[in-house]
Amino acid sequence: MFDRYEAGEQAVLVHIEFPNEGDREDLQELEMLVSSAGVNALTIVQGSRQSPHAKFFVGSGKAEEIAEIVKIHDADVIIFNHELSPSQERNLEAICKCRVLDRTSLILDIFAQRARTHEGKLQVELAQLRHISTRLIRGWTHLERQKGGIGLRGPGETQLETDRRLIRGKIKNILKRLEKVAKQREQGRRARNRNEIPTVSLVGYTNAGKSTLFNRITDSDVYAADQLFATLDPTLRKIEVPDLGSTILADTVGFIRHLPHDLVAAFKSTLAETREADLQLHVVDVADARRQENIEQVQDVLREIDADDVPQLLVYNKIDLVEEISPRIDRNDEGRPIRVWLSAQTGVGCELLLQAIGECLAEQMFDENMCIPPKLGRLQGALYRLNAVQKESFDEHGNWLLDVRLPMSDWQRLKKEFGEQITELVV
């Protein structure tokens, strides 16, 4: 048995290059993850392979080399910048006589350190339990295996079965509690929809400056730091957008390459703020040489959580770190804002972002005057139920003259209910 890994330990990092793009990880990102976890990296072992070794992931020769380096540096833990199978972890621990963590375990540990709210802690615990459940056997290799025959049955497998049953029960309990929290969130979203308050969600690669931008726009004090996954728990604040009014701005967890599936599944309810938003602000670190790769990684995660069809505005942040870039709004051929250049740290360009948000959301609003005859009183009632009537008067024929403003999605639903002919009532 090895002691469980704790932040602050001395680690040997392992990074292997593969020719297949899908298997590649970023070494610089591993160093940032390790630093964010509070681990001291003693040295980095690098190598290259065509494909992972079935037994040790790195090959027997490299595994022995790692074991020797661990012995020389007296390291507490080995951290791989890759996902290992339970058997690979077990085999590496046996030859290195040291605790072995893969990339997924490291990210889960960081999430466990950062979660602050009840929901965040539940989501991280759920992801950890799902991950640990596949690796239980490693912790009981010092016990006898169950054998056939009277008097020859060891305690190992019995204990494993007990642990698995306990974990299954705990996962079931957490899922119930998360379902309750998700329902509360859904009620909040429905209330905002009834009050016609649009939601804007911040998305982006971790450490792109989302929380700094959130604080700048909302005048809040959400925790922001130059580290990966500084923000886990979603935060919502009301802001005032020019020519639009009240809007909800949501700050959510940052994304990363190959974000563990257990985490994506656990954070589904949190990420629903992104999926249900009226507009996504995709924050990009313009000073990062890998910004295009990061943009693609974020889009991959958005596809995974079914949030890739939400209208999006790119926000190129940190222009203060790049010479000869001034704050501005880039537009497409139709004049719609598609990109805003700013610095959340200095505040330069943030007023342009609010302008662009207002323009983008205005495109998603039906804002017209309508003349509704008395025979269509049901339509007038439906508009009132949607809080869409801004002003009402009557003409000499008894028709309702309404100033109407409502989300385009609600207008489309009205057209389905009352027929396309209601467009003829727009004056």
UniProtKB/TrEMBL annotation:
GO terms for cellular component: cytoplasm. One of its GO terms (molecular function) is guanosine tetraphosphate binding. Transmembrane segments: none annotated. Residues 198-365 form the Hflx-type G domain. It comes from the Bacteria. Mg(2+) binds at S211, T231. GTP binds at residues 204-211, 229-233, 251-254, 317-320, 343-345. Its cofactor is Mg(2+). InterPro entries: EFG_III/V, G_HFLX_dom, GTP-bd, GTP-bd_M, GTPase_HflX, GTPase_HflX_N, GTPase_HflX_N_sf, P-loop_NTPase. It is found in: Cytoplasm. Pfam families: GTP-bdg_M, GTP-bdg_N, MMR_HSR1. Keywords: Cytoplasm, GTP-binding, Magnesium, Metal-binding, Nucleotide-binding. Its main location: cytoplasm. GTPase that associates with the 50S ribosomal subunit and may have a role during protein synthesis or ribosome biogenesis. Monomer. Associates with the 50S ribosomal subunit. Belongs to the TRAFAC class OBG-HflX-like GTPase superfamily. HflX GTPase family. This is GTPase HflX. It comes from Pseudoalteromonas piratica.
